[in-house]
Specification:
Four copies of one chain form a homotetramer.
Chain A lengths: L7 E6 L15 H16 L4 H6 L6 E8 L8 E12 L2 E10 L2 E11 L19
Antiparallel strand pairs in A: 1-3, 2-5, 3-4, 4-5
Chain lengths: 132, 132, 132, 132
């Protein structure tokens, strides 16, 4: 169940393969972590993304913004705090803060669009839509 | 040498490993491609990024924005058109359009910061700075 | 602590980014998972790989063999069962079975060599060496 | 066209994202490179892997062996020399040497199996089968 403030927390440990020769996590790794955190967020409210896809609703990323604040390193256990916003009937924005303890490492906004198997926009799952 | 309009073109072929089960290139692959295109852009004006790092200047990504317009697929040969903007003495923005033939697949803006090995901001290479 | 049979179990969930257009996890993903499982195996006997590196011992992979038995899919939670063998004073072999429930998905043998920062072979950590 | 000795050469440049905090290319990157080299090998004899898949023949990796000899680094341009062996009607082995100039960096053997869309073994493309 989501916490009462609608915020979900998810932990991801930085893999060795995520590092680069600067000695920190490579900036592309965050994109994969954010996807894992979104899927965990959905699971947390009872939506299995694999079931969504099996039922014919895909949710491709259409827009991605990441601000990198502080580098993180191998074996760091990062906390992903996610909230959503719903700008319309076919899109969801995931707003995520990535922290290591009290240190903010990155902030991200990822917009996904609900589409059917032919690529046409469709309604997001009812559980995500704001109550009117 | 750069073309007279300051625009550089770079080709990248979509790898099988870049695809996901939607049957298209995964959105995280673009981040790695954009890095290759930036490094090719620098090479094109005579800057080897490995030499920059060896000389003590790193250029980590501090901000990343990608708008995904059309999916691309395995074996597609994508064209990366890059221009830069220089918002200040320690940062460079790379503006890139990713196309497949006449179709725009994605637009991206990646900001990198010049830092020394201790992480302190430093001046970007002179070849990137606007002429006063 | 390791279980009494010297076997360590570790769980990894298949990420969406791990899939390819065959609809299964891409074969390269296993290599990254195996690394995570090795590092978890070491943590389980009290060795933090990051501390090893900080103390000057690196453990690069020198040989890798994977037999892929059954495909696995997005969101599958895979079990990694690892045992080690020690063929000599400077190398460790990690033998891992990757399963999904009762189904064996892959078997792997990864050999790592202990080296110092200059790349010269050095002794593996005492905790890994067989008792004489 | 293949060279007269049946050997095909393919170049891949090491990406920054391929590196890890040891300052060398991560061992998992080789797996993705080997896939690109196989697909280039096939293209070189007139087989587009995407056409194979579109026609219903998939070629998943069933066995992978890599011996890592010397590390390679960011921006290195590696040469992949590939030969094939055909152990039976439904499998192909790709034997690849990865070199940087005169230095052998790695040797690999990757076995792929031809399967139809249901996963059943099928004959490899005629162009790969040994002439009887």
């Amino acid at each position: 169940m989501p916490s009462s403030d609608g915020l979900h927390r998810h932990l991801i440990r930085v893999r060795y393969a995520d590092t680069d020769q600067m000695g920190v996590a490579h900036h592309a790794a965050y994109v994969v972590w954010l996807e894992e955190a979104r899927i965990a967020w959905l699971r947390n409210i009872g939506i299995l993304y694999k079931d969504l896809e099996a039922a014919g609703t895909l949710m491709p990323v259409v827009d991605l913004r990441i601000g990198y604040r502080r580098p993180c390193r191998f074996d760091d256990e990062l906390e992903f705090e996610t909230r959503i916003a719903v700008p319309g009937p076919t899109r969801v924005e995931f707003h995520t803060r990535i922290s290591l303890g009290a240190v903010l490492c990155a902030e991200a906004q990822v917009t996904v669009a609900a589409v059917d198997r032919t690529g046409r926009p469709c309604r997001i799952p009812a559980a995500l839509a704001p109550r009117s």
